[in-house]
Amino acid sequence: MKRLLPALAAGFFCALQAAAAPLAYVANEKSGTISIIDTATDEVVGTIKAGTKPRGQAVGADGRTLYVSDQPANALLVVDLEKRAVAGTIDLGESPEGVSRSPDGKWVVVAVEMSNSAAFIDTASGRKLFNIKTRGENPEHAVFSPDGRWLYVSAEEADQVDIVDVAAQKQVAAVKVAKRPRGIAFLPDGSRAYVACEFDSKVFAIDVATQKVVAEIKAGTFSNGVAVHPDGKRVYVSNGKDASVSVIDTATNTVSATIAVGKRPWNMAITPDGTKLYVANGRDNSVSVIDTATNRKLRDIPVGEIPWGVVIR
Length: 313
Fold this sequence. Notes:
Blueprint: H1 4-19, E1 23-28, E2 33-38, E3 43-49, E4 54-59, E5 65-70, E6 75-80, E7 85-91, E8 96-101, E9 107-112, E10 117-122, E11 127-133, E12 137-144, E13 150-157, E14 160-165, E15 170-176, E16 181-186, E17 192-197, E18 202-207, E19 212-218, E20 223-228, E21 234-239, E22 244-249, E23 254-260, E24 265-270, E25 276-281, E26 286-291, E27 296-302, E28 307-312
Antiparallel strand pairs: 1-2, 1-28, 2-3, 4-5, 5-6, 6-7, 8-9, 9-10, 10-11, 12-13, 13-14, 14-15, 16-17, 17-18, 18-19, 20-21, 21-22, 22-23, 24-25, 25-26, 26-27
């Protein structure tokens, strides 16, 4: 019996981990920190020191690693989430921003502004293997399609979305949208991508198969971040000047609700079960929590200074 106790204890611990609510990680630009939020209690439960200006983030496939772009250091920070500390750095080009992980976990990609490129990091070796040049100037986000075939890249000084063929390792198309495209998110089935264009305050729905715009949706003023509900029926868009989030019905491609949040809402993340949306409010130093069933803000959580975005593990 004594020999069984350690195994039982380990199994019990694993069960507890599996049952635990997801954690949300918030990159705070000015503080140089990552705030950790327990999504069960909506309280900050920890802080990680992360360079001097953390921005984009992606959680590794193992769930134990967080990749964070540190803009002034021109580097990607590799954070050990169990130790809650930076475990290493990967050199990038100048001014890295958005970070995403491929669905198979093989790649982490960073949009690098000054080189107008997407940097591909091999997660197995922890090395940058190559850069793919894109046409738009100052790329901010680079996001994989759910099947991992495409990488969609938005750039601050552009009016298009650049499309990269991941296997071919080159840009193969560009879709005209509007000025200053920012956030990008795909429907779970990969059929459409939604792109927020800040200066025109519009969201463009792109048909992935045809690489054509199928809808233009008027959002709030200075639309920015985009998140998609796991059921694929709703798309959420943060509106920087309106301090709000628009809810788009994907069946009709119309705005069905508008939710007030904090000042300068930026990038967002939704829990895996789709019940809560977390919105980084850059000028309120807070994260707004939205109940997606009722479209109501539940609370604002104080975090570090100038939160840029949220990812959820």
